[in-house]
Amino acid sequence: MIKVTSIRFAPLALALALAGCASGPGGGSIYVPMGGGEPSRAPEPPRTAEPEQNSEREPEPRVWRKSEEPAVSEPEQPSRTPSYRESGDALPAAAVTLIRDADQRLQQGDSAGAISSLERAQRIAPRSAEVYFKLAEAYVAGDNLGAAEQFTLKGLSLAGNNSSLQRSGWLLLADIRRARGNVAGASQAEDRARAL
Amino acid sequence: MWLRYNRGMSKSSSSRKKSPKSRSGNQKSGFWRFMFRAGALGLVLLAGWMVYLDAVVTSRFEGRRFEVPSRVYARPLELYDGASVSAGSLVRELELSGYRPGDGVRAGTYQRNGGRFVISTRGFLFPDGEEARRRLSLVVSGDRVSSFSVLAGPSAAIVRLEPARIGGIYPAHREDRVLVQLEEVPELLPQGLMAVEDRRFYDHFGVAPLSIARAMLANIKAGGIVQGGSTLTQQLVKNFFLSREQTLVRKGNEALMSILLELHYDKDDILETYLNEVYLGQAGTRSIHGFGLASQFYFGESLKDLAPHQLALLIGMVKGPSYYNPRRHPERATSRRNLVLDEMAEAGLLAEPELAKQKSRPLGVSAKPSFTENRYPAYIDLVHRHLARDYQQEDLQSEGLRIFTTLDPAVQHASETAVSKTLPKLANADELEAALVVTAKDTGEVLALVGGKDPQFAGFNRAVDAHRPMGSLIKPFVYLTALEQPDRYTLITPVKDQAFTLEFDDGRLWQPKNFDKEERGEVPLHLALSKSYNLPAVRVGLDIGIPNVQQTLRDFGVTTPISDYPSMLLGSVSLAPVDVAQLYQGLATGGFNTPLRTIREVTDADNEPLSRYNLKVDQVADPAAVHLVQYAMQETMQEGTGRSAYYTLPDQLTLAGKTGTTDDGRDAWFAGFSGDLLAVAWVGRDDNGPTVLTGASGALPVWSSMMSQIPQHGFSPVMPDGVQYHWVDAEAQALTGEGCANARLVPFITGSEPVMSTDCNGNIGRQIRSWFEGLFQ
C-alpha cells in the first residue's frame, strides 16, 4: 500500500499521511489546491551558485525497520517517494455528460461533433481510460482507424488493474487491428483479453 | 481606376487641339459653336467622371465591403462540479471576458459573496454549437467548483463561459470592427440615428437640400450643432471613399457618389453598411469602426443588450468620437447623450417618463476596454506561426475568421508573474533573460508562453526562437534508451562513475567530468539520473550506442539534425524551450507523443468550421520503460537536483522533472511535470555569456513559482502493463524485505528484477523465493 523507500527519521503518522496522499494505488489523482500544504521547509531565496549535483557526498540512505519505527521524529525531514497507482481516474459527472452527448452525435452520424465533445471530456478527465476508448470509437466511426488504434493504446495504458476496462480495451484493439488487416496483432490482442 | 481618369483628360486635350482649326466661320456662330462644343465636352467629361465614380462606388460596395480582422480567443473556462479554479482566477477570467460585478441577473454581470458566485452568461456561438444564455450559481472552495447549478436557462451539468478575446489579426489600415446586421440591432439605434443625423433618410435620393435647411433650423433652436446637413448616405460616402479634405470638388463628388449609391442599392443595405463603417474611436493604433465593436469597446456589452441611454451615447459620438470620448470627457459626452435623448423623444421614440429616467442614468462606460490588444505577444506570435501553416496572411487580415486558441489566462498570468517576480532575485539579474512554456500534460495544448523577462514586450520570442544546448535535459532519453533493453539495464544496474578519456580518430581527446568534479566509483542507474551525474550518462550512452539515443530523440520529436559526437550525450543538441516541451510531453504521458497545439479550431465569420486541430496521440516508446524513467525523474524532485522545488511547493504535489545546465552556466534549464501541467523554463543571457546559475538555481525557481500559483493534481502515473514493483537492495543487487536496511521499492520491467535475495542481515540467498515456492508445489 504505502511506498516508502528511503524515509529518514520520519514519523510513521506523517509518512502514512503523505504517502497515502501522494500515491494511494487505486485512488484517483490527488488534487492539491494552491498552497495546499505547508512547504516542508521555510522558503529560501533562490541561491545563485547551487551546484547541480551534490557536492557533498550523500549519506547512505538509512532505512529503519518497521519494528524500530520511531513514534516521533524530526518533522523537518520530509518523506517523499516516487508515486504510482494501479488504476486511472474515475470519470467525473461532467465528463459523463459530455460522453453521452458524444454518443448522441455518433448516433446521428456526426463523428466530428462527437470527437469535439470527447475532446472536451478528455480535457476534464485526461487520465480516464474510458474517454480514450470512446475517442477510438468515434474515430472508427469517422473511418480513421490509425487514430483509433492509438487512442485505444492510450486508454489501455490507463486501464491499470481494472480488468473489465482492460478487456474492453483489448477487444476494441483486436477489432480495429483486424479492420486494418493486422490479423496477427488482432489475435494477440484477443489473447490478452482472454487471459484476463 | 486612375487610368480611366487620365484617358478622359487626354481626350479633352486632343479635342482642344482640334478646335483652333475650325475658327474660320463667323464670330457669332463660332462663339455658339464653341459653347456647344464646350457644353458637349463638359457633358462627356461629366459622363466619364460619373462612369468612373460609379465604378468606384460599385466595386467597393459590391466586393468585400469590409475587411474584418480575425479574432483570437482564449480557451473558454468550463464550469462544472469539481472544476479546478480559484476564486481569484475566476474573477480575473470573468473580467477578461468582459463581465462586470453587478446583480448577476443582467447578462454579462456576476455577483460574488465570498466563495459563492452568481454569473449571468451572455451565451456564445461555439464552433460545435451554441452555449445558451444562463444564470449560474456555484461555490468555489479549496480551489474547486461545487454546488454548481443553473438558475435560469437550459439545464446543464457543464457550461462554458464566453471565451476572452486575446488578440486580432488586423488589416494594414488597422481598422477593427464587429459586423452587425440591421435586423439584429435594437430598433432604437437606426431610428435614433436617423432622428439625429438624417430624418428623411428613407425619402431622399442620396442628398437632401431640405434636410440641410432643417438642420440649420434645429441647430439655431438648440443653440448649438445637434444636426448635420449631410445625409447618412453622404456621410457613408465620405468615410468610405473620400479623403478628409474639405473642398468643393470633394463635396461635389460626395453628392454624385451618394446619388449613385442610392441608385444601385436599397436603403437598408446602405444603413447597415453605415452602422458597420462609422468611425467611433481609437485604441492605440487600432481604430474602432461600427456600432458592434463600439458597444463592446465602451460598455463591454453586446449591442443588443444596450439600454436607450447607451445607444444615445454611441449615436451622439458619431459627430466627434474623440471630442465626445466618454472615458476622457465624461461631461461633454453626457450632455451630448442627453441632447440625443431629447431628439429621440421629439421624434416620438422615447416617452416622457422614460426620457427623464434615461437622462438621469450615469454613462455606464466600462473603466477600460475589456480587450486590451497584444496582452500576450509571445503566445499570439506562436499562434500566428501555427496559422501560417494553413492560412494566407491576407485571409487572416480580412475575412473575419474566429480563431479558438488553447491559452489558459490563469496559467498565463501565473507564468508571467513567475518570470517577472523571480528573475530580479537572481544574481546579475540585469543581464538575464528567460522563457517559459506551459502545456496541458495529457492534451498537448499550450496553455501559456512567456518569451522574455518583460512578458508584455513583443520582441525576441525566446520560448520559440532561442535555440540553446539542452544540457542534462537529454539524460532521461539516454537512460530511456538503455532501460528499453531490460536484459541489460534496470534502475538498479550499477553504472561506473569514473573519469575516462575518449580519443578520436584525429587524435583529439575528450575527458568528460562531473559537475562537482567528484567521482563516486559506482552508482545505481536511478541515482545517476536523479543526481544528474555526467560520467555514468556518457558511459551508458556509449554502451547502448549514440545512434540509438539519436533515434529515441527523433521518435520523441526532435526534427533538427543531431550531432553524433559523444558530447551529444551531455546535451550539445540545441533546442528552443517549446521544442523541449514537445520532447518531454512524450515522457510525461508514458511514451505517447502528443503534438503541441495552440489552436483548437478556426471558423469563418459565419461559424462554418475551416480547420480543426484535433488531439493526437502516437505511441513512440514502451510505456514500461518510460515508467522507470518517470520514477527516476520523481526521485530527482525528492532527493536529486530538483529537490529545491519543495522550498516553495507543497509536499503533496508529486512532481517529476529534470535540471539542465550548460558550460559556465550559459543555459539554466528546468523541464518537469505534475499530473496536469508540463512546463519548461529557461534562464540565460541573450549574448550567450556565462552566468553563475544552474538549472536548479536559475530555471527551477521560475518553474516552481509558476507551479505554486496553479491548483492541480500531483503526478502519479498508472503502472503500465509489464511493470512490477519490488523491494530491492541496490548495493546487494538483490530482492529484499520491505523493512530491511537499504530497501527501496523500485519498478522493474517484468523479468528483469534481481534473482538473488537478501535478508535484513545481508545474507545473500540464491532463489529464496523459489525455495519457498517449491515447498508449496
From TrEMBL, chain A:
InterPro entries: TPR-like_helical_dom_sf (IPR011990), TPR_rpt (IPR019734). Residues 47-69 have a biased composition (Basic and acidic residues). SMART domains: TPR. Residues 31-88 are annotated as: Disordered. Residues 1-22 form the signal peptide. Keywords: Signal. Coiled coil: none annotated. This is Tetratricopeptide repeat protein. It comes from Marinobacter vinifirmus.
